[in-house]
Amino acid sequence: MVFVGFGFLMVFLQRYGFSSVGFTFLLAAFALQWSTLVQGFLHSFHSGHIHVGVESMINADFCAGAVLISFGAVLGKTGPAQLLLMALLEVVLFGINEFVLLHLLGVRDAGGSMTIHTFGAYFGLVLSRVLYRPQLEKSKHRQGSVYHSDLFAMMGTIFLWIFWPSFNSALTALGAGQHRTALNTYYSLAASTLGTFALSALVGEDGRLDMVHVQNAALAGGVVVGTSSEMMLTPFGALAAGFLAGTVSTLGYKFFTPILESKFKVQDTCGVHNLHGMPGVLGALLGVLVAGLATHEAYGDGLESVFPLIAEGQRSATSQAMLQLFGLFVTLMFASVGGGLGGLLLKLPFLDSPPDSQCYEDRVHWQVPGEHEDEAQRPLRVEEADTQA
Q1: Across the 389 residues of the chain, what is the mean pLDDT of every consecutive 10-residue run?
Q2: What is the pLDDT of residue 370?
Q3: Looking at the domain assignment, is residue 73 inside a domain?
Q4: Are 272 and 65 in contact (CB under 8 A)?
Q5: Are 106 and 315 in contact (CB under 8 A)?
Q6: Which of these, 156, 287, 285, 150, lies nearest to 219 by C-alpha position?
Q7: Which GO BP terms, alphabetically (predicted)?
């Protein structure tokens, strides 16, 4: 999901495919190592050593996912040195935010609606706001997609869609809790896909589907059940949440993204606000609702694995719900402050920020085959082919 799913999801830009996949590769490889250290100091530092294992590897993957979500908001407008500096800061803040929520507040967030999606999205959006480029119109002709770039991006979508149930359930308790997480995610994804197709046709020109909607909003179902997937959401609840997320995400791409840039000066390249931001907040609120309804009768012996403090009598369902809500505000605070600080750091003049006229262009940072031969970029005419033959 991290290397293939996120990487190919972002290759929709017609002249930024090398950078989308390549910088995803670079950022994820860096974030995995740095996160292992940061999270290790916070979670598994014993007797002067950081203890690592499968769980620490998965947690590092989750952190890399948040970094790549933020990358999507500034895609095409930043260089590799800027992105590595962004990851350096974001991994630290991600680790602290996760520690505060999961260990100090006892918040439940199995699939990371708050810790991964909301944090990554709003960190990236605030970062994009600080890095706002009023002259980005000079590169607007490269912001669109072409047929094959959208097709490659759709491969990333399908890859993410297939593996999202295992993503959400990776760290949940073995047995019923893990099965419930996978099933809730599965149903939610299916419903968000239907909602996306329905709304895309409804708001599209002449009733035609928009590939941008399908590539992104169809995945919103996996985001919206991140917090509540291990809880007693029920299949109907998962379906309803997924359909709502797909609908909200599609409408966001159609109507809210232009407003975000024109009114709020946020240039969100990949639309992370629609796929991760709004569904992430909805997922956190859904978690508040489902946590508030938790009872011993509904969960039976499984209550201890989902809500151990409620099972032990140290906390009521209502107080758990309030702390879930407080966790959302803590996440938004860390993301906003961190994104603002990161934006100021990334504006340092010695970093390799591409000029306004060269954004969304691979040739700034990559050797592109045929870049010095215009003829290599166009197909041979019939008579030329015959001559060469």
Answers
A1: 96 96 98 97 93 95 98 97 97 98 96 97 98 92 93 97 97 93 98 98 94 97 97 97 98 95 95 98 98 94 93 95 98 98 95 92 92 51 50
A2: 77
A3: yes
A4: no
A5: yes
A6: 156
A7: ammonium homeostasis; transepithelial ammonium transport
**What span, in angstroms and rounded, lies between the C-alpha atoms of 355 and 350?**
13
> Which DSSP letter does residue 114 get?
I
In a domain, 132, yes or no: yes
User: Residue 66: inside a domain, yes or no?
Assistant: yes
Q: What is residue 218's three-state secondary structure?
A: coil
Q: Each residue of 93-109: b (16+ CB within 10 Å) or e?
A: bbbebbbbbbeeebbbb
Question: What is the C-alpha to C-alpha distance for residues 130 and 172, in angstroms, rounded to an integer?
Answer: 37
E strands within the chain?
A: 45-46, 49-50
Bridge partners, 50 (sequence order): 45
pLDDT (tens digit per residue) in 308-354: 999 999 999 999 999 999 999 999 999 999 999 999 999 998 998 99
The number of beta carbons lying within 10 Å of the beta carbon of residue 234 is 14
Q: Is 214 within 8 Å of 154 (Cβ atoms)?
A: yes
Which residues, in sequence order, are CB contacts of 164 under 8 Å at separation 6+? Answer: 1, 185, 189, 219, 222
Residue 199: Cβ-neighbour burial (10 angstroms; 0-12, 13-18, 19+): buried
Contact 124, 69 (CB under 8 A): yes
Length of the chain, in residues? 389
- How many domains does one find in the chain? 1
What is the pTM assigned to this prediction? 0.94
Q: Domain span at residue 57?
A: 1-347
Q: For position 252, which CATH number holds? A: 1.10.3430.10
Q: What type of residue sits at position 285? A: L
